[in-house]
Amino acid sequence: MLVGFKQANDSVPKVGAKRPTLNVQFPRGSASRILEIEALDVERCALDFFQLNTPLVESIRETIRAQGPQSFAWFMQQALYHPEHGYYSSGRCAIGRKGDYFTNVSVGPLFGQLLSAQFSEIWERLGKINDFVIVEQGAHDGQFALDVLEFVQKRLPEFFDALRYRIIEPFPILEQQQRQRLEAFGDKVKWPDSPEPFTGVHFSNELLDAMPVRLISNGTEKLVGLDGDKFVFVERQVDKTIFNQAALESIDEIAANLQRGYAIAIDYGFLDEEFERNVQVRARHRNLDSPFEQIGDADITMSVHWRSIVERAQANGLRVTGFTDQHHFLTGIISQFGRGGSPEPPAGDWGQSPLPDSRKAKRELQTLLHPEMLGRAFQVLVLAKNVGPETNPLAGFKFARESCFS
C-alpha cells in the first residue's frame, strides 16, 4: 500500500488501443500562462507482461523502494540519460532505417547543406565576423556537423575560414563517435566541458522534445511508483507548477551564453490554441503503449509547447525572428540560394546551388518538404539577441506567415 498516494487505473488496453495522450489548457488571461496538463490517459498504468530485470530497471526500482514514488521527469531522466544505462547516454539510441525512428539528419546530407546556407546568411548579417561559432546540442553521432562542414568547406570557403564548430556533449560514448566522424576537421571542431559565451548560432534538431517533463493536471501529479515489482502511476495533489522545467532552463542557458546572434530550434510541437500533448514511446519504428516498456531501449519524447518556450526566451532578452513549419522554412532557403536546383549559381556570394541535381537529392528533398512526411510535422523557431530588427526576414522565413508571437 502506498501511503499518501492513490494508484491510478491499472487496466491494460488491448493491442492497438489508443496511445496515451496528454492535453494542455491555459488559464485564459493568465500573464504567466502556467501550464496544466490534462490527466494522462494511461489506461495501461501497470504492465502485466514480463518486465526484464535490467540493471537500469533495478536501479529505478531501488530508488522508488527507498524514497517512494518519483516524478515522471525523474523516470524519464533515468530511462534516457542514466550515465551508464540510459537510452541516449549508453549509445543504444539508433536512428534511421535500421534504428528506432527517422530524423531530418538521417534522411541524407541535404538537410545539413540547406542549413549551411542559412548559417552563411546569418554570418553575413553579423558582418562576416571572424570566429563565427556554431554551437550544436543534441548532435548524436555528429552527422549533421559533418554534413555542414563538408558543404561549407567545398562551396563557401570564405565562410569556412571564419567558422568554428562547438558541440555540447555530456556523454563520453557519443563524444567519441563525434570525434571519429569529424577527425578530418581538426581544431575547427571542439567539445567544451561546459557551455561558453559565443557569437554566432545555437542549433538544435529534436532536442527540446527529449527533455524530461512532469505529468501535472488540475492540481494532480502522476508519479512513477511500484506495485510489487510492476511500475505503476500513482497520484498526489500538488500546487500548480511548470511541467517542462528542463526545456525552459535550457533556454536560460542559451540566452546566458549567446552574446550576439541567433538560436535555431527545430522540433515537433504545438501552440497553446491547438496543443495536444502526447507521450511518444518508440522502438524499431513502432509506437509502444507505455513508457514502462523496454525501459532504456526505447525513445521517450513529448511534443514541444512553443508558447512557453517563446515566453521564457523573451523573458531572457531574446527576440523571435521567425516561426514556421519546416516545409516553408526550407522552401525559403531553396528559393533564395538554390534557384530550384538550377546548376547556375544564385545571386550573391553563395557559391554553387545547395541542391545537387540527382535522384537521391530529389528523394531527400521530398521527404524533408512533403506535408505527409516531415514538412509539416516539424516547426522551426529562430530567436535573436543583440541583432537589430531585420529589414528583410532570414531566407527561411521568406514564405512564412506573420509570426504568431509578439
Kindly list the characteristics that best describe this protein.
single chain; 406 residues; alpha/beta; Rossmann fold; 2 domains; 5-stranded antiparallel β-sheet; globular
What does this protein look like?
This protein is α/β, with parallel strands linked by helices and 406 residues long. Helix content is 29%, strand content 23%. It has helices spanning 55-67, 72-81, 104-107, 110-125, 143-155, 157-162, 172-181, 245-257, 306-315, 326-338, 359-369, and strands spanning 6-7, 21-25, 36-37, 70-71, 132-137, 163-168, 189-190, 198-205, 215-217, 220-227, 230-237, 258-267, 269-270, 276-283, 286-287, 299-302, 304-305, 319-325, 379-385. The chain has a seven-stranded mixed sheet, with helices on both faces. α4 (110-125) crosses α5 (143-155). The longest helix has 16 residues, at 110-125.
Beta-strand fraction estimate: 15-25%
Shape: globular
**Strand arrangement in the largest pleated sheet:** 7-6-5-8-12-19-18
CATH class of the largest domain: Alpha Beta
Q: What kind of oligomer do you see?
A: single chain
Q: What is this structure, in a nutshell?
A:
The protein contains 11 helices and 19 strands. The protein is of the alpha/beta class and about 400 residues long.
